[in-house]
Design a protein that fits this description.
Layout (H helix, E strand, L loop, with lengths): L1 H15 L12 H5 L25 E15 L11 E16 L2 E16 L3 E18 L5 E11 L4 E3 L9 E4 L5 E14 L2 E13 L17 E18 L2 E12 L8 E11 L4 E11 L8 E13 L2
Antiparallel strand pairs: 1-2, 1-14, 2-3, 3-4, 4-5, 5-8, 6-7, 8-9, 9-10, 10-11, 11-12, 12-13, 13-14
């Protein structure tokens, strides 16, 4: 099996170097669009997502990026030990923007799915994301300020399990498609003093759907309950900038506070991604995300991912 792992990595690298000239790595998405504003590659599981539509745009503009990341490790009589693994993650990001006079609309769709095969432990999910974000905005006379309204949706494709259980116990199911799923609607004011920074605040509504009632209590719903509505307010800060040549930082902090609960129960999502260019088709990225959502857990959730892969500009 190890020779097939090695062959997979070789094939992946060979494919990256033979892509057509239209291919483009993820780090350059904002550069491709900088004349018309920039679209960040950010973690879509957030409460909200910034999508900036430049005031120079007139009419429609679309972009579509497809990516493939992989990792492999193989050991044979290795003194330090190790476990043979192979993982692959596919992703696609589709953006649609429109502007007419002072009115703008942006659609952002982000789909990701990844699997890893671990020796003696089988196949496990490593990434899973379905997110659709819509943003409507209206520029004021001072174009640094705008009114906005967002309608967002997020869930996952596949079942997720907690594997941190005794060997004699089956992994615990903790999520599946539409369990949970989140709808959010936010209306407020945004301030964009520079093309790499944006701040916004507004009133919000959040709906949580848990189709599988066996998971209802895990996400803060009553036993057997499938739907919860929460009125509140949201704040957010977004930053995206090239720090060094071919190295870009994307960072965001977002909050949602339920007006019917104590402010200490505010949901907080802090996301950071550092993306480095290897060549015209390949990139490496480091992602660090922390989430506090006491509906799910009183402890902070942490995700850390280091990956390398290819990205193709499809549209």
């Amino acid at each position: 099996m190890r020779k097939y792992f090695s062959f997979f990595v070789f094939a992946l690298l060979l494919f990256a170097n033979t892509l057509p000239a239209l291919g483009q790595e993820a780090i350059r998405i904002s550069e491709l669009l900088k004349d018309d504003g920039d679209i960040s590659i950010q973690d879509i599981s957030r409460i909200d997502k910034t999508v900036i539509v430049a005031d120079t745009l007139d009419g429609w503009q679309a972009s579509w990026i497809g990516g493939l990341n992989g990792a492999q490790a193989a050991y044979n009589n290795w003194s330090q030990g190790g476990t043979n693994t192979i993982s692959v993650t596919g992703s696609t990001i589709f953006n649609l923007k429109f502007r007419k006079d002072r009115f703008a609309y942006a659609l952002d769709t982000n789909l990701r799915y990844g699997k890893a095969r671990i020796e003696d432990e089988g196949t496990r999910k490593t990434d899973d994301r379905v997110a659709v974000n819509n943003k409507f905005s209206y520029l004021f006379d001072n174009k640094k300020w705008s009114a906005f309204a967002n309608v967002n949706f997020s869930t996952q494709f596949d079942k997720g399990f907690n594997y941190n259980v005794p060997d004699t116990v089956q992994p615990e199911l903790i999520s599946k498609i539409f369990s949970p799923a989140y709808f959010t609607q936010i209306a407020g004011i945004a301030f964009t003093p520079a093309d790499y920074f944006s701040a916004q605040a507004g009133m919000a509504m959040k709906e949580t759907i848990v189709a599988d009632t066996s998971l209802s209590q895990r996400y803060g719903l009553s036993a057997g309950e499938q739907f919860r509505f929460e009125p509140g307010y949201s704040t957010a800060l977004f930053f995206e900038k090239e720090l060094f040549s071919n190295v870009r930082l994307i960072s965001s902090v977002e909050t949602f506070t339920n007006l019917q609960r104590n402010i200490s129960s505010t949901d907080v999502h802090f996301s950071n991604e550092l993306i480095g260019k290897i060549n015209d088709f390949m990139n490496m990225s480091f992602q660090y995300v922390t989430i506090y959502d006491d509906d799910y857990s009183k402890k902070v959730q942490i995700k850390q991912v280091l990956s390398a892969g290819i990205s193709v500009n499809i549209l």
